[in-house]
Amino acid sequence: SQQGEEDPQALSIQEGENATMNCSYKTSINNLQWYRQNSGRGLVHLILIRSNEREKHSGRLRVTLDTSKKSSSLLITASRAADTASYFCVRGSNYKLTFGKGTLLTVNP
Amino acid sequence: EAEVAQSPRYKITEKSQAVAFWCDPISGHATLYWYRQILGQGPELLVQFQDESVVDDSQLPKDRFSAERLKGVDSTLKIQPAELGDSAMYLCASSLEWGLQETQYFGPGTRLLVL
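Structure tokens for the assembled complex are given below, as produced in the milestone run.
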């Protein structure tokens, strides 16, 4: 079954704007990961945040995790056309990764 | 940069036929995963190996799907017989070790169309 439901399902922005994607999940996690998928580079790991962490940064990415609300958010700052992709919230628990349905981000030049 | 290799990239077959997909993980990676991704959905884990041993195949439809990693390196996923509902992208991934903190590296996938 799919866990980690992303919101919105689709997002269209202009280059240079920030993009925020949210994720909710139902059961306990060990960590929460975000992956990106596009036709050019396939599925790529972006960032991992552990259940005892609240915020993490990597380049233009900022991830937050609220375990009390079972939710996470991914912020991409100063977006570029190359950021156009599907972004998946991935729940890590029981030695498995469980992917959500993804948010399709389109960055218009 | 080391990558996960998969072949073929595309496969068209008729229902009731047998199909096989091959995956070569990044050298030195002990853990290998097969996922299925239906269009518009996220990948779903089918089976994972630690070296040559299956550690989880709870989501693998064992009546028609089989997977092996005989020497603990490359792996084959087979479907026999294929059904229309098997049309999907089949992704292979590998990680250095078996653990939730390990990054999984994905191959380009095999897109299967069953007619």
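Residues 77 and 94 of chain B are 14 Å apart (CA to CA). Chain B is about 0% helix and 50% strand. Further analysis is deferred to the final report.
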